[in-house]
Specification:
With about 100 residues, the protein is mainly alpha-helical. About 65% of the residues lie in helices and about 0% in strands. It is built from eight helices and no strands. The model has no long low-confidence stretch (mean pLDDT about 75).
Length: about 100
């Protein structure tokens, strides 16, 4: 877990590919019920990446949050942590052409 946190720290000089792969690993881990107990530690980080300037990082962070929704207990904690807002915004993109192209680079 600490390795992921280190690579995902915005103060680190990790390249985009490393960050993308870390987010994909977290997304894959989010599917397994065995990892749900410590995934709460990643909520804030995933929420930060839903607003990242890199479109792939945003998508992978949303995918990880969505995968956590496979567990009904996680859904409640995601809603309590206000993570559901990011998933809803991503599901219903803005209607203007400029806003849509900015979100889906």
């Amino acid at each position: 877990k600490n390795e992921f946190l280190a690579f995902l720290d915005p103060k680190q000089c990790s390249d985009h590919e490393t960050v993308r792969y870390c987010l994909l690993i977290i997304s894959n881990m989010a599917v397994a019920k065995q990892s749900h107990s410590f995934m709460v530690d990643f909520y804030d980080i995933l929420m930060d990446f839903t607003r990242d300037r890199d479109a792939k990082c945003r998508q992978y962070a949303i995918q990880a949050l969505g995968n956590l929704c496979a567990d009904p207990l996680q859904v409640k904690s995601l809603i309590d942590a206000k993570c559901s807002n990011a998933m809803i915004l991503f599901s219903f993109p803005p209607t203007t052409d400029d806003a849509a192209s900015a979100q889906f680079q």
